[in-house]
Sequence to fold (228 residues):
Amino acid sequence: MLLINRALRLLDRHYGDLKWWPGDTPFEIMAGAILTQNTAWSNVEKAIRSLKAARLLSLPAMRRAGPASIARCIRPSGYYNQKALKLKALVGFLDREYGGSISRMRAGRTGLLREQLLTVRGVGPETADSMLCYALDKPVFVVDAYTRRIFGRLGVLRGDEDYEEVRGLFESAIKSYIIGDGGGQRDGLQKLLNQYHACIVMAGKDFCRKRSPACASCPLRRLKRCRW
DNA sequence: GCCCAGGTGGGTA
DNA sequence: TACCCACATGGG
Fold:
């Protein structure tokens, strides 16, 4: 618990306010959350550029487009046939449940939204939480491969915990550090959960790759239990 | 050429 | 429940 917060604060100080997620609109963020599944972000950027060039990166445009034309654009992100179907499934869900309005969806309760998202084909826990946190501004912590790798190396995680277990651990650790009152507290929590996961991704990319970790300049290097 | 990258869903024992 | 496997491209 303590180690989690110490590590997150070190990363936060190192990176400053990251203002995540990279994306111009909530819909783009949701689409990006699907496109980045098991894929390097540099490849997702190519797919997003291509969708924009084809004017397909909006809910109405994607509603009209067929899976094949979406798949052509997102080819660089890998799994393009699967992901095209997933994007269509997301649009179908938004249309069916929220009349195609993400701002209407934003008014829903976090727990309900999460349950709903998990029923969408191709939306698992990490993708759902990315959407909740970064497209809908809900107070949710996103657990990803970087979280598991970094905190595995810090000895916080064994490696066999399931997604919910890790999420619960981090959310309660971060909550325990929040001080303040009422709405401000809730807003502060959302911002912290957002920022901390962003920091983890940056640190994962910069210092915690499976190959060639840049350990010497890692902000976590001084934590006693950090082992590469 | 081989390994890896911000997962998910389906199948089998 | 606990593993396998398919899905696929681009960079190091």
